[in-house]
Here is the input.
Amino acid sequence: MSAPDPRRPDQDDEQTGLGPTRVRDLAAIAAVTAIVAWILVRYNYSDFPPLPLLAGVVLYVLAALEIVIAFVVRSRVESRDVGRARGQLHPLTAARVLALAKASAILGAIAVGVWLGLLAFLLGQHDLAAADHDRPGAIVGLIGGVLLVAAALWLEYCCRAPDDPSAVGDS
Here is the structure.
């Protein structure tokens, strides 16, 4: 029996490095955040100001920007127009866009959790006029968070090289 070669890790070991964002990780972040938000809202709702209808509109703006960036990156990657020449997508820019996508996916999951926790509390309050007023804003925010997560995951997908073996069959 020979000693393991340090240059070739066992196949059972997890891969190191930056991998695709997993939906289950984002769901876990959203679930934990929703529980914490529900607890905080339950004990502090009377101290909150009225929730404006468009409180989560910034999430829609971020999602729209990421979709636009995804179209640009996707067209450059598909046409193999990535490099250091003028007019090409610089590899460092692609890495920054990937970091933006990963951070936005986490932000979106946190936003989904916060809005979901708030909405869960509000749906249980049938006798408060303030809760009736705040429900539409919480729904708008929740949808914005979901859209941001979807846009971020798509942007991350668009950053993959066409011949990347992890681009097929990952979730």
Observations:
- Confidence is low (pLDDT under 50) at residues 167-171.
- Residues 23-49+56-161 form one domain.
